[in-house]
Amino acid sequence: MSIESITLVHHTHTDIGYTNNFPAIAATHVRHLRDVLRRCRQDRRFRWTIEAGWALKQFLLAAGDDEKQDLLARIRSGQIEVSALYVQPLTQVCNLEELCACVEWNQELCRGLDAPITTAIIDDMGGLSYNMPQVLARHGVRYIVNGCGGWRVMLPFTTLPHVFRLASPDDSSVIFYHLGDDKENRSDDIGPAQYGFGEIYFLWPLLKEMKPGISLPGDDGEKTIFQMKGRQGVDALLARLHRDNYPLKSLLLQVSADNWGPMDYLPEAVDYWNSHYGNPTIRFGTCGEFFADVEKQYGPAIPTIKGELTCSWTEHVLTNAAATGVYRGVKRSLADVCALDACRARPSISNAEWSRVMEQLLLYCDHTCGISMWDWEKKVASYGSFWDETFDTVRRAWQINADYAHGARRGVEAMKSRQAIELCSDDPDLPKTVTVFNPLSFGRDGMLSIVTSQSNLKLKMGEGFVSADSRPINPALFLHKIWCKDMAPYGTKVLAALAEAPAPGPAVYASEGWKLAGPDLAVEIDPASGGVRSMRTASDGTEWVDASRNTLNQALYFNVDGVHQTAVRNGLDESLQLQPATVKSVRLLGGRGGLHHASAIVEVVLLARREITLETQYILDASGLSIRNRIRKVHTLDKEACYFAFPMRMDGEFHFDVEQQGQTTRFPDERLPGSTNHNLAVQDFVSVSDSQRHAVLTTRQACAMCLGKQVHYHFGLDYPAIERPTVLFYAFNNLWNTNCPLHQTDELVFEYHVGLHNEAFSASKAYRTARSATHPLEIIPGDLTAQGFSKNGCNLLECSADNVLVESLRPMDGGVWRVRLVEVDRRATRATLKFAGRLKGCSTRAESDNDEWRPASADGIVLDLGPAEMKTILLRTN
Fold first, then answer.
1. pLDDT, tens digit (0-9, with 9 covering 90-100), for 125-142
2. CATH superfamily of 5-309
3. pTM beyond cutoff 0.85
4. CA atoms within 13 A on the CB side of 675
5. CA distances, 226 to each of 204, 241, 280, 617 (Å)
6. Which terminal Cβ of the chain has fewer Cβ within 10 Å, N or C?
7. Adjacency order of strands within the sheet including 861-865
8. Which band of pLDDT confidence, cut at 50, 70 and 90, is reported for residue 783?
9. Which CATH number is 513-774 given?
């Protein structure tokens, strides 16, 4: 099909902190939008798209009233279009609430303008999380333009069509548009970014003809295109698209570059083309205008494709592993602090306070982690040391990025501290009564941890008192741990406390040398590797670990110096055959048993270019095996990668189910062509299963993993079979040539939990296991019934369906809370939500200013959820 018209979508690609530090880039985007307004006034044909709402917010903060009104009027008229996303997020690293906030904040910025936001632009990255189409569709966004970059992405060479409906597990879909790249002629490891095709193929070749001798920017990835002149660039692109069976008569070309403003000569070039060549016609436009025409003409013929489109950019955040661990912990802490606040008679967390934390999280999960440092090795060699003052700007850029995570943590810690002070009604050192709180939407058991000045502690549970496992922290403080059963959803229990020593008797959980044992599970640590070589269930003796190659939680550290990626089209020519660092020594440092848990601490010293020390604490309790790793290592200039191996033993055909944003993706079954074959993103857990059992592997800090074996780079579009039911959590690396290695003095901590189930995979069971492992029960000194909490029951809501979970709670001011629910088993479900008696009203609409409120009666409300559906309701507490 011949292309008859080209729409130029002009925008800047928002790289926060990539071409300069945050303040400089913010100021640059303000200047760009002022220039845009000037050009809009001069030429009514001129169009501009704001790729990220963050830039719009920076302008509204800095501009005068007249400028603001001018900009908003241009948005209202359609001359300026706002894309759907607040930042350019790593969608597979975000949780569901982050993705929703990323869309909702842009809608709030444009509220009242009668300018619906219909298109999301995702640039640089070559993939989307499986649930992203549902998030977009449920917020009225219909289209995605993926201006895929040319660096470490596989999507440009996929067999996927250029235009298709990308569907989520719930069958929500959005039209996905991308142009791909030349599959037949790729010789460099970086190619032209699709978000810059407009200037690369149209503007720059034409300017060579219009203005001979003009100096143009560029890099090696665009060198062959730079030799083109006049219409040669457009003709070459159209010829390639024709070979690739591009299905439309119209073409969208993005005219953009990293943090660039409006491009000079572009209107002049459009006029020159149309007067000198005219075929195809070229005009300014917006994504919304382009897709409205496409959908009208081709809508029924656009195919629907369903699956996960993984992207190697997930690996970006592993370069700053310490800050990424903080970022992931903050998200869970924010959920817990909101759950407790929503259950209070007088909530104290405001929407503004919540939003400040969320903005820090969104800025951290933006796809740029620090200033670009191509060829940093050569610069270090030239300057003599990374400590040269030339690199101070680089260090500052990476510190700003890390500060987003640390700033979010400070915000949540302030909320938690305020809650602890306001709710405490007994002596924290010598409590006579404590209240236990479950921050999750389902009933569960869990471990309690409390610090007091009492050397021993008993809590009244049921008819009698139960002794805690107690250990001194210092001469004045003691840590107490005790297993608590039957906590209701968002439930509290008020328990009497006694400072009495436990009665003599044998430990229920034993720690004997390299072995841990409890009523349900026996664990054996390997003295040669420091990992777990055996986990057996006590009831039937089933072995869960396949230690034939690696032990469970074995640290695999690789030096990757001197390994260079070849052409991206084929990935590496062959798999890397690198050997992990050897083990110099393994020592058992200590262990203890008790009534509620047993633990052992192991030190492993790996010998690479220098010694790398790993300390691991294994903790066995009724939930399974918890693992706490601490790596005492500072990142250096050496390229490196580290994984923790989890080789599971499965007797039949095995599967991996990876959780992201309230849904699981089955790998490799639901992986789409163009996905990476490594560093798959994971939010909370990966499940390994066969038809008889499944292991739930929960990760706290690490957000990426490999399946079957470690993979340092992707291998192209041919996906080898995954031969072993092994998960390797990708702890950290500094492999990206664009990233200058970060000197991390932070402690690198990686925590995991292994939960075992003698039944086939169940997403709802896996979710409950993982959420229980990452959201501990909270304990507050005093009796909270005087503050409106239940003595032994639910304080907010409970759901009749096990497969419907609360994904997030958000304060909306005025005593209103927004509750986001997800169905996780992919089956249609009718669920009854019952509410605590103190709630005043509920609404099944998402907007807090709607009038469709109903009483929150004891009978609750009935909700129908489709398979994998996300649904939002509102609760009012006053």
1. 988 999 999 999 999 999
2. Glycoside hydrolase 38, N terminal domain (3.20.110.10)
3. yes
4. 23
5. 8, 19, 21, 57
6. N
7. 797-799, 829-835, 861-865
8. very high
9. 2.70.98.30
